[in-house]
Each structure stands twice: as structure tokens, then as C-alpha cells.
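Workshop exercise sheet. Pairs work together: one partner reads the sequence aloud, the other fills in the structure field after running the prediction. Swap roles for the next sheet.
Pair: D.N. / O.F.
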Amino acid sequence: MKNLFLLAIAVSLTSCAVIRPGEAGIKQRFGKFQNEVKTEGVFIFNPITSKVVKESIQTNNLEMNLNLPSKEGLSVDSEISILYHLDTEMVPQVLQSIGRDYRTIIASVFRSASADVCSQFFAKDMHSGKRADIEEAIRLKMDDNLNPKGIVIEAVLMKSIQLPPRLSTSIEQKLQAEQDAMRLVFILEQARLQAERKIIDATGERDAQLILAEGLTPEIIKIRSIEAFEKFSTSINSKLIITDGKTPFLIQGTEK
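Structure field:
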């Protein structure tokens, strides 16, 4: 009976918490976080003196909408995604020094880092191939600040960039002009190729005529005419041949 009583007291003084994959469990005893971090399994603790705090160590997404300054002093509306996760081994330090509301710290650091980086680029750069450079520069600046605190910045993604109306119109007109110029170059190139082809065809035809003309001597012409009239004469169809009297077939016979 005494053993059962002691067992009941022991059970009442112990409890457990299940730590699922993607979570980190940290025991908080008398308000102070312990250094032991459990990432999977069961955490045994005394509910009277301790509790277990669970925190995600998976990749999380923080979305923000704000105005980014540009080098020329314009304000660019943007939609940003910040991908981050907590360093597993440093979760106790994060909770102890920053608390569970560390997302506000990430947002504050981003505002500062993005202002420093974007002010070095023109507004049009945020809408061009330099966007990736801007994103990486912001990420590095944030990571330098937050990584020592246990927060790892994986990526900064500028999902949507809304340029000022006048600048947007100017860029569209420039792109349209570039496309028109490229189209004109293509048309001119096609016309040049067609002209070259016609010249080649004409040159080939001229050369063929010259070669043919050089081979058509009076004797050859006379022979070809005789052959033609011979073919006509062997045909069974009726025929009428009109000649001007100079046809080679009409050869004057030798006078007797």
C-alpha cells in the first residue's frame, strides 16, 4: 500500500511532452530555459517546477508589404517573402534573449537592411535582372545581423514590385521602342537576303544564257533545225509549216 502511495506521488510529480518532427522542445525550469534541446520524442518533466516550450525549426515564411526607397529617391511598393528558420542548437538562446515574438525582430531587421541596399539601386533595377542581386544583398545583410542570434535567413524574395506610374510607363515605352527596332532590323535583314537571292538567280540565268549563246553557232542552229523538221515529217498528224524562206531546212539544191 505504501508503494502504491509513493508511485501515485511520483506520477503526480512527473509529466511528459511529445516533440514532433520539425519541432524543438526546451525545458523551462523556474522560468529559465535549459540548454537541452529535444527535436523528436518524449520529454519528461516535473509540471510543478518545469514546463516544455515547443518551437518550430522548419522553414517559415514571413510576408511583408512595404515601400522600398530607390537611388533616385522614388518609393517602390513591394510584396516581400522572407524564408527563415531557427538554429536548432540556439533555440534556448533565441527564446531567452528575444522571446517567442522573434518575427517582429526579423521584420525590423529587414526594413533596415532593405533600405540600405535598395538605396544603392535605381527603381528600374528592382524590375529587371538585378532583382536577384538586390534580394541576395538584403539576405546577406539580414543574416549577418540575425545569424549570431540563432535566426537563419534562407532567402529574401521580392514577389511583387510596383513602380511609380510615370517610371513604369517610361520603361514600357523604352521596351516597346527596343522591340520595334529589333523588328525593323529583322525586316531589313530579310529584304537584304531576298535581294541577294534575286541577284544570284539573275546572275545564274545570265551565265547560262551566255554559255548557251556561245555554243549556238550557225552550223549548230542549222543541224537543230533539220532535226526538228525531220521529227515533224515523221509525225502522222497533219501539219502546216510556214517559213520565211530562210529556214535552214530549205537548202537550195545544186543546179544541174
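Discussion prompt: The two ends are 166 Å apart (CA to CA). What would you look at next?
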